[in-house]
Write a structure and sequence with these properties.
The chain has 677 residues and is of the alpha/beta class. It has 3 domains: 253 residues, Alpha-Beta Complex (2-enoyl-CoA Hydratase, Chain A, domain 1), CATH 3.90.226; 179 residues, NAD(P)-binding Rossmann-like Domain (Rossmann fold); 205 residues, Orthogonal Bundle (N-(1-d-carboxylethyl)-l-norvaline Dehydrogenase, domain 2), CATH 1.10.1040.50. Helix content is 47%, strand content 11%. It contains 28 helices and 17 strands. Strands 12-11-10-13-14-15-16-17 form an 8-stranded mixed sheet, sandwiched between helices. The structure holds 1,4-dihydronicotinamide adenine dinucleotide.
């Protein structure tokens, strides 16, 4: 008998098969909740009911597009409770992923049978929430407090096999539907409902020590701690604790953190489909050539190999080729050590890789990307060589950070195939890929860039051409305002502390010390001739470079470092230099609070992002936010600078930016998008 278009019920003798079919992931949308609720009524005459899903997965979560609106009946906790209370016991028959509401439903069933490798999780924490349909109350009762903390507070997915060992799954079977038939033939006595069980004894300090660990790891994010608090209620009766969980879940849907994380979730999906390539079919890339096997080239080659491509790496001479070969092998072996790749996969990937010193060997590449020195004439020579050897329509890509791709490709035949693919270091780890199009690049080449990014499991963002593209241009603005703060009264450790307190993994000065001060110095020198003479230019960073204080590698930078220790130590020499600088500029130094520092820097980031959108470099705010989150460590739970600016109010951001601009006249242009809002 059919129930609703999303949930159907069919009888096989006295067994009722309830099937959810709501592609792509059988989310618990209103129709599914209603269908399940009706199904419980329908199966009343059966001996047992089996709940399974059509398609590639069991119910893998809620429908997040419903989260901004008030909840609609029937509510998930009521449906879950109805399944648990049903006189006809339910068996969850699962495959694919059993996530969020799906897992909450499965825990309300009397038995759980799963295919090998089925993933179980309560990943609500990833979108700033706690489960809202009994997940935090049933999970510790089912598998114990420690495993419930591991899963709920970090969103960890656990495989059916591991969960079975903890008693969370009754049977793991190659063909779960066939296993269900055997199971119902000898149906055991119905176990006590999970909600009525008590949580197994756990160490008395488990919650307190977990809280300390989570506080440290969360860097200001609240939802991991919210999940822990909800888990702690599971020692109370279910009937009093579950309504508290539900109320908190609903309140958290309105929180800035959850809104930010949901924004990031949707933005990640949307940026991969920029308007420029709507309805453009990508080409297929299987073989690539990478020119230059240094830090970036080796990382790009590794990412491509892990993504399943064949890679030919071209270096300057046999020795450099050999060094690049070792570098890539080392990176792949690192992936094996981290459990990301098996030994067999390593052998397969090494067979798809060669490092050579001749362009002729790249003749069959579908795409060639250069990662040679950041020098215009070297890059131009590389492309001239490539153009001589590879097919006329093979894509030519540059990984340049700052040079203008139009100049790099000058003189190359068929420029519609030329593109920038800007990876971030380390390229096999960092998620961001800026796809830079020139006015000549054809949309299908851009689409192919996105499809390549997808194969390499990157978050790809389209960028037009400007100095530093989206990310490094914003970084330059960030650093500029940080330097103004130093000149006006702050010290490096204060700026770093303020940005860490905001949620950045590191402050700008400790980060510069980690990555080295030289590249930015070279850029400032390169831009000196074209810099607006009215712009305020703080020379402190240049002075440090002149003193060969290049950061951790030289033992000194914005901080000093003790031998063999990466811990930054405040350096009175640097602080005196900063104060002398302010004095020489006739600046009366003043105190800045942490909040003042971070709100100024965030205003500058949002303003630069807004200018980048106004100039058409980025298509929208989502693109800017994704660049910041996936390339620059911007806290995901803040949603990126554009989302954050909307969250605190565009008018407040604009007011902060106007203050910043007023205090450094001639240095900042305030974006219309801020002013006109
Ligand atoms: P690197 O100095 O580590 O590597 C450059 C490699 O290119 C060297 O192995 C060198 O032997 C090779 N090479 C130079 N000329 C060559 C030629 N004519 N033919 C073949 N190989 C040649 O430099 P890195 O850091 O890997 O940077 C490479 C490019 O990537 C630069 O354009 C840089 O701006 C860009 N980039 C760098 C990032 C970073 O964090 N280092 C991040 C993103 C982009």
């Amino acid at each position: 008998m059919s129930q609703s278009s999303l949930v159907s019920v069919e009888y096989m003798g006295d067994v009722a098969w309830v099937t959810v079919e709501n592609p792509p992931v059988n989310a618990t949308s209103t129709g599914v909740r209603q269908g399940l609720s009706d199904a419980v009524d329908t199966v009343k005459d059966a001996r047992v009911a089996v709940l399974s899903c059509a398609g590639r997965t069991f119910i893998a979560g809620g429908d997040m597009s419903e989260f901004d609106a008030p909840p609609v009946e029937p509510h998930l906790p009521d449906v879950v409770q109805k399944i648990e209370d049903s006189e006809v016991p339910f068996i969850a028959c699962m495959h694919g992923n059993v996530l969020g509401g799906g897992f909450e439903i499965a825990m309300a069933c009397a038995w759980r049978i799963a295919a090998p490798g089925t993933g179980f999780g309560l990943p609500e924490v990833n979108v700033g929430l706690i489960p809202g349909a009994g997940g935090t109350q049933r999970l510790p009762r089912l598998v114990g407090m420690q495993a419930a903390i591991d899963m709920t507070c970090s969103g960890k997915i656990m495989k059916a096999e591991a969960l079975a060992e903890l008693g969370g799954v009754d049977l793991v079977a190659e063909d779960p539907k066939a296993a269900v038939l055997d199971f119902v033939a000898k149906l055991p006595n119905r176990p006590q409902s999970v909600s009525q069980r008590s949580v197994a004894a756990f160490a008395p300090d488990l919650l307190a020590t977990s809280r300390q660990v989570l506080e440290k790891r969360a860097k200001g994010q609240q939802s991991p701690l919210e999940n822990l608090t909800a888990l702690s209620w599971s020692v109370e009766p279910f009937s009093t604790a579950q309504p508290k969980e539900r109320a908190r879940h609903l309140a958290l849907r309105q929180s800035a953190e959850s809104r930010a994380l949901r924004h990031a979730f949707f933005a990640e999906r949307n940026v991969s489909k920029p308007n420029l390539i709507k309805s453009v079919a990508p080409g297929d890339i299987n073989r690539i050539a990478v020119v230059g096997g240094g830090l970036m080239g080796a990382g790009i080659a590794t990412a491509a190999l892990i993504g399943g491509l064949s890679v030919t790496l071209i270096e300057r001479d046999p020795d450099a080729a050999k060094a690049a070969q070792y570098r890539v092998e080392g990176l792949l072996q690192g992936a094996v050590k981290r459990g990301k790749m098996s030994e067999a996969q390593l052998r397969d990937r090494l067979a798809a890789f060669r490092a050579v010193d001749s362009y002729a060997e790249a003749a069959d590449a579908d795409l060639a990307i250069e990662a040679v020195f950041e020098d215009l004439s070297v890059k131009q020579q590389v492309f001239a060589e490539l153009a001589r050897h590879i097919e006329r329509d093979a894509i030519l890509a540059t990984n340049t950070s700052y040079l203008n791709p139009i100049e790099i490709f000058d003189g190359i035949e068929n420029q519609s195939r030329c593109i920038g693919l800007h990876f971030f270091s380390p390229a096999h780890v960092m998620k961001l890929l800026e796809i830079v199009h020139t006015p000549q690049t054809s949309p299908d080449v851009v689409a192919t860039g996105f499809s390549l990014g997808n194969k390499l499991r990157k978050v790809s963002v389209l960028s037009g051409i400007c100095d530093g593209f989206i990310g490094n241009r914003m970084l330059a603005a960030y650093r500029r305002e940080a330097d103004y703060l130093l000149a006006d009264g702050a010290l490096p450790y204060q700026v770093d502390q303020a940005m860490r307190a905001f949620g950045m993994p590191m402050g700008p000065y400790e980060l510069q010390d980690l990555t080295g001060l030289q590249i930015a110095w070279a850029n400032r020198k390169r831009n000196a001739a074209t810099r607006d003479p009215n712009e305020r230019y703080v020379t402190i960073a240049d002075q440090l470079c002149e003193m060969e204080r290049f950061g951790q590698r030289t033992g000194k930078g914005w901080y000093r470092y003790e031998e063999g220790n990466r811990e930054p130590i405040r350096d009175s020499e640097v602080e005196a230099l900063i104060e002398t600088y302010s004095g020489a500029q006739d600046i009366t130094r003043r105190d800045f609070s942490k909040e003042e520092i971070s709100s100024r820097i965030l205003a500058v980031l949002a303003n630069e992002g807004a200018l980048i959108i106004e100039e058409g470099i980025a298509e929208n705010a989502e693109a800017v936010d994704m660049v910041q989150i996936h390339g620059y460590g911007f806290p995901r739970w803040r949603g990126g600078p554009m989302n954050y600016c909307k969250e605190i109010g565009i008018s407040e951001t604009c007011a902060n930016m106007l203050t910043v601009a007023e205090e450094s006249p001639g240095s900042w242009c305030v974006a219309d998008r801020l002013k006109n809002n």
